[in-house]
Amino acid sequence: MTWHFTEDTAAFRAAAGAHLAAEATRNTAVLTLMDGADRLGWWAGSDGRTTGVLAVSRSGALHLGATTEEAARALASRPGEEPVSVRGETAAVEAYARASGRPWRPVVRMRLFRLGEPVPPDPAPAGRHRTAAARDVPLVAAWTREFAVAIGEEPAEDYTGFAAERISEGRLVLWEAPDGRPVSMAAVSRTIEGQARVHLVYTPPAERGNGYAAGATDAVGRVAAARDATRILLFTDLSNPTSNALYQRLGYRPVTDHLGVEFSGTAG
């Protein structure tokens, strides 16, 4: 029983492919991150089966996919294994944090949802959606910065490239009010293993309370499904009951809870 590590995405897929495919929904974060990850890993049990996977981002954050508590504890016990933060399913992250011997604190509690039968917003918001275009890059970049601040993240200096990539690939929609003003946005990830994840759902404060986010979320999910995604996912912050209720009204169903923790100092 041991953890194996690689920087080669192809080698990772070859070793952990069966686990990634069998638990694709629970492995969504690792699948999304793996092409740009600094390091990838998989846990091989005594029977040779993979029961844990991870991706370490270039910022040093550790993301656990579908991983047993045993595998998480073994990972935390490895000499020199001291990431700045860990995210993943709650049980595995708590097992890791407790086994690490390092001071830690929870910073976010999330819930992963999967779209069942889509349910249009009721009542339907005024206006319509459209796919964002190149002219929208400055607006989307500005809104992305506001979104980062709103969820408590340290914003990057410039989101122009981030916005341009999603717009050029047709993965971001804007909701327009009846007068043509963009009033909300939602994006979706590239489709991996048949699934895409909705993210970057944002409405400026002055436009909230009109159902625009529901319209944008419903629209971007339908866009992804019409293109190539057979499963539509999203994460919500459990501290935000409004968004959790909204997504369930749109047909999203809970899959599993996630936890993010940050560490300070080294093992005592």
The amount of helix comes to 25-40%
Q: What is the chain-wise order of helices and strands?
A: EHHEEEHEHEEHHEEEHEHE
CA-CA gap between termini: 26 Å
Record field, number of beta strands: 12
Mean pLDDT score, rounded? 95
Give the oligomer, counting copies of the same chain as homo and different chains as hetero.
single chain
Q: Assess the beta-strand content as a share of residues.
A: 25-35%
The shape, in one word, is globular
Structural class: alpha+beta
Parts with pLDDT < 50 across at least 5 consecutive residues = none
User: Strand order across the biggest sheet?
Assistant: 1-2-3-4-5-12-6-11-10-9-8-7
Largest sheet: 12 strands, mixed
What does this structure look like?
This protein has 268 residues and is an alpha+beta fold. It is 32% helix and 31% strand. The protein has eight helices and twelve strands. A twelve-stranded mixed sheet has the order 1-2-3-4-5-12-6-11-10-9-8-7, with helices on both faces. Helix 3 (69-76) links the parallel strand 4 and strand 5 (85-89). The protein is globular and about 60 Å long.
Observed structural traits:
268 residues, alpha+beta, 12-stranded mixed beta sheet, 8 helices, 32% helix
Layout: helices, strands, pairs:
Layout: E1 2-6, H1 9-22, H2 28-33, E2 39-44, E3 50-56, E4 61-64, H3 69-76, E5 85-89, H4 90-100, E6 104-115, E7 128-131, H5 137-150, H6 160-168, E8 172-176, E9 182-188, E10 195-202, H7 212-227, E11 231-237, H8 241-249, E12 252-263
Parallel strand pairs: 4-5, 10-11
Antiparallel strand pairs: 1-2, 2-3, 3-4, 5-12, 6-11, 6-12, 7-8, 8-9, 9-10
Helix pairs in contact: 3-4, 5-6
